[in-house]
Amino acid sequence: MPTLRNGLSDRLLELKTLLTQSSALLKFMTLTNTTQTLQNYVDGQWCFSHATDYLNVVNPATTERLAKVPLSSSDEVNQAAQVAAIAFQTWRRTPPTQRVQYLFRLKGLMEEQFEDLARTITLECGKTLDESKGEMRRAIENVETACGIPMMMQGTNLEDIASGIDEFMIRQPLGVAAVIAPFNFPGMIPFWFMPYAIACGNTYIVKPSEKVPLTMQKVFHLLDHAGFPKGVVNLVNGAKEAVDAILDHPLIQAISFVGSTPVARYIYSRAAANGKRVQCQGGAKNPVIILPDADIDMTTRITADSAFGCAGQRCSAASIAVTVGEARQTYTDAIAHAASTRVVGYGLDEGVQMGPVITPQSQERIEHLIQEGAAQGATVLVDGRSPKISGYEQGNFVRPTILQNVHPQSDTAKTEIFGPVLSLIHLDTIDEAIALINSGQYGNMACLFTDSGAAARKFRYEAEAGNIGINIGVAAPMAFFPFSGWKESFFGDLHGQGHHAIEFFTQTKVIVERWSSKDWSRKF
Ligand code: NAD
Fold first, then answer.
1. For an engineered disulfide with 327, which of 29, 95, 317, 323 has Cβ 3.0 to 4.6 Å away?
2. How far is the CA of 480 from the centre of ligand 1 (A)?
3. 42, 80 in Cβ contact below 8 A?
4. Domain that holds residue 138
5. Model confidence pLDDT, tens digit, residues 77-93
6. Distance from the CA of 280 to the center of ligand 1, in angstroms?
7. Does residue 275 share a domain with residue 302?
8. Segment 10-62, tens digit of pLDDT
9. Which of 135, 205, 248, 263 maximizes ligand 1 atoms within 8 Å of its Cβ, making it the mutation to test the pocket?
């Protein structure tokens, strides 16, 4: 029987827990309510940067200033690397079964704050709320997958490689690792790497894109709340100086990068020259091939989502649609209709299907590339330049655009536009279409739309791209498969996510072992 005193103290305890939880939640929710200066998170502490330069973080639809982000110095990266190296000594000795408990807690917190995280992505990046939710869902899937580390990190062994000799391969963490992230998936991309890195026993530094640092600021409040030991996860905001300091720092062993191809090439060369393990995912120019037997309604819906979803700012956005034979006219009419009727506006508004592009400079660059396409002989079938979006006249909007009769060898067919622009090319055979894909510099994704299994097999066998879609418009691998770019879309050999991430974040050690044989019949 509970006594009155026990009952009261139980109620008081419940009240105390409730108050603690709601004050933490309040702190989290008010994070972006004022124009704040963002902080770094180093050694388990939030700290203001000593930066002399700051950038504004701006809502690309409304142009409202959301925050100021510091461009941290190399000293600040050094501090994060030092504390992460110290934390590594204890973290690597923490059993994997305990390490994943922090990830389970993180997953719970991410689910609790799911709506707010998604809203933050839309605020700073511009995509629609549904797109932001899709992004956060994939981030969470990566946490879930990394929770399997006690199984996935295991090595291999073989007894009696010679009589009485056994051989083992074990996986050990590397030390301090870091990610340098792009603007287009502020919530998801650090999660292609971070959960695996820390589950494997490494400690970590995140350098978000300086254009969209708010989402990681919120994620780090959750990491803090999940109770990771000091120094295991660190956040350093910044741009080139911070990146170069990461590339050169002797305590940082492994670097993951996602961004444009020229920067990927630079990061890969400089970090590799410093003896680091590097994986760099770069830009893309993704073709979709439409055969005459494709279901045109489905193909149009899916390819329109691929080309115009996230305002075309996805590394797996369809950028070229190649119609083969009789698919030409029906697809052209249907995609032109889909492009011109897409609802463009502020991503938080109901019914909006496409948001703005990230900056006024991006808008200008995209509109310039449309102009260049026309100058090179393409017809601007649907023209999305300089739109007026009611209520958001100052936003960085470009409406869906279709360029028709794009020459396969023109710059338009080869340049990554990274905006809502789809180029139409017509060819006579699937062989010509595959040859066109294989002649391109990028190899991030290629998709085929058809009803024919034989055509599908030929395509997946021959197309030179790391991610293939068959009747799929955005062939972005799930968390438990590697994100497999090829050619100039990737520098390195192990990709993000799944087993590749585990290989990347561990080094193998092989032990060959022999013990003297004893007479076991002897009593001890
Ligand atoms: P970006 O290359 O401009 O920037 C990426 C990161 O690199 C940022 O954190 C930035 O601070 C840093 N950076 C930029 N210039 C630098 C320099 N000169 N020296 C050192 N660091 C530098 O890319 P972005 O515009 O943020 O992102 C868009 C690009 O990312 C597109 O090309 C897109 O295709 C690509 N991307 C690729 C994938 C993929 O999986 N392959 C996924 C998402 C985005």
1. 323
2. 24
3. yes
4. 28-282+489-509
5. 999 999 999 999 999 99
6. 10
7. no
8. 444 444 444 444 444 444 444 444 579 999 999 999 999 999 999 999 999 99
9. 263
Residue 239 DSSP one-character state: S
Cα dihedral 87, 89, 90, 96 in deg (nearest 10): 110
Q: Ramachandran region of residue 497, left (φ > 0), alpha (ψ -120 to 50) or beta?
A: left
What angle do helix axes 114-125 and 96-112 make, rounded to 10 degrees?
Answer: 70
Determine the Cα–Cα distance for residues 510 and 507; give it in Å rounded to an integer. 10
Among 310, 332, 312, CA closest to 322: 332
Please give the model's pTM, rounded to 2 decimal places. Answer: 0.93
Residue 359 lies in a domain: yes
The span from the CA of 376 to the CA of 321, in Å, is 18
Can you tell me whether residue 216 is helix, strand or coil? helix
Place of tokens 């709506």: 115
161 and 85 co-located in one domain = yes
What element of type H or E holds 260? none
Residue 11 lies in a domain: no
CA 414 → CA 409, 411, 446, 456, distances in Å?
Answer: 7, 5, 14, 24
CB of 188 closer than 6 A to ligand 1? Answer: no
Query: What are the φ/ψ torsions at residue 494 (nearest 5 degrees)?
Result: -105, 130
Question: Kind of pairing, strands 442-443 and 379-382?
Answer: unpaired
- Catalytic positions, please? 315
Give the residue carrying structure tokens 């909007």. 397
371 residue type, one letter: Q
> How many domains is the chain built from?
2
* DSSP-assigned letters across all residues of 350-411: TT--B---S-HHHHHHHHHHHHHHHHTT-EEEE--SS---TT-TTS-----EEEES--TTSH
Strands 176-180 and 252-258: parallel
**What is the CA(279)–ligand 1 centre distance, in A?**
13
